[in-house]
Amino acid sequence: MLHRLLAGRDLRAELQLALKMSGAATLAWWLATEGGVPRPIFAALVPFVAMSGDPFSAVSVSVGRVLGVFAGVAIGIGVLATSLGALAQVALAVLAGAVVGIALRVGQRPNVETAVSALFLVALGRTGAAHAGVTRIWETAIGAGVTVLVAALVWPPHPVRELRLRLGRLRQELGADLAAIAEDLATGNGAAAARLDDVRARSLDVVRDVFDLERAQNALRWNPLRRSSAAEFGEIEHRIRLAARLYRHTRALTRDLADAGADVRGAPAGRELAGVARAVAEAADLELRGLEAVHAGAVAATALDVRSASLDGEALVIRAQLAQMLADLRSAANIET
């Protein structure tokens, strides 16, 4: 049971995150008390909200939270200046905070801190609201400043390392899926139909990885200790985008093979295409590892032309998908066909 819960987790990184959050919260509390706030709970809360463990957003979340607090305090003070009843003030504060939070979103999510801060002030009522608002801004600014420094300087997130791990996972999954496709082509064992849902899910995952590339690049800009990885980022970005294109064709290939009949799967045409699929998979694996793939790509191109010259029907459709994959690899590695 415990083994299953811990499988695939980076316990070292999680422990470092826990220590960073605790240390930043303690430091923020101490600085705020030195600044005259007796119990600066909001200063200590910021590190736990901002340091989510996302290697692409720790600093930006802290900055976004400060902006959300400022906006929420302004909304709260404005709502308290109206003559509305208590329930109407709460509803207005929450609605305005939610709308403004969409404009001040952090990453792909609305900035809920705007609505939280506005609601907090309205709950205090008119008495002491302005003082509480100023105190909340002061505490949050201290907490955010400490969080930004700790996030950037103490065990800073490593966006390129995270992308490297994701690329390794993609390479292994793509190799396994192409191997299963080749086996189904050669033997007709039904592996394509059995893996179709999983291949679709993985193809969507790699699209999300592509969307995260911009966030990773921004994280490199925010963190002075990781800017030296910018050159490596460009190389990994290229390979992740290539993996996304290859998985798009793999998804289509899996679907076409799952729908194919006995004249392809396990037939002579299928065995010919299985050899092409294996050659394409080898070239893809080398290219995604950043190794020389020109020879492997040339072998795949030869197999595509020689072994499948007389194919037709469903086999020709599958050949077209393999040809598209090889075209993407040729573009990536300058393979001549």
Describe the structure in brief.
This protein is mainly alpha-helical. It folds into 2 domains: 144 residues, no CATH class; 175 residues, Methane Monooxygenase Hydroxylase, Chain G, domain 1.
**What number is the mean pLDDT?**
81
CA gyration radius, whole angstroms: 27 Å
CATH architectural type of the largest domain: Up-down Bundle
Proportion of strand residues: under 5%
Q: Tell how many strands the DSSP assignment holds.
A: 0
Indicate the CATH topology of the largest domain.
Methane Monooxygenase Hydroxylase, Chain G, domain 1
Taking the sheet with the most strands, its summary is: none
Task: List unreliable stretches of 5+ residues.
Answer: none
The termini sit apart by: 51 Å
Structural class: mainly alpha
Number of helices: 13
Roughly what percent helix?
over 70%
- Gross morphology is elongated
Number of domains: 2
Description of the structure:
- The radius of gyration is 27 Å and the shape is elongated.
- The chain is built from 13 helices and no strands.
- It is mainly alpha-helical.
- The protein has 2 domains: 10-153, no CATH class; 159-333, Methane Monooxygenase Hydroxylase, Chain G, domain 1 (Up-down Bundle), CATH 1.20.58.
Main features:
elongated, Methane Monooxygenase Hydroxylase, Chain G, domain 1, 337 residues, single chain, mainly alpha, 13 helices
Helices and strands in order, then pairings?
Elements lengths: L1 H5 L4 H24 L6 H10 L7 H23 L5 H18 L9 H12 L4 H25 L5 H29 L3 H32 L7 H30 L8 H21 L5 H14 L5 H21 L4
Helix pairs in contact: 2-3, 2-7, 3-4, 3-7, 4-5, 4-6, 4-7, 5-6, 6-7, 8-9, 8-10, 8-11, 9-10, 10-13, 11-12, 11-13, 12-13
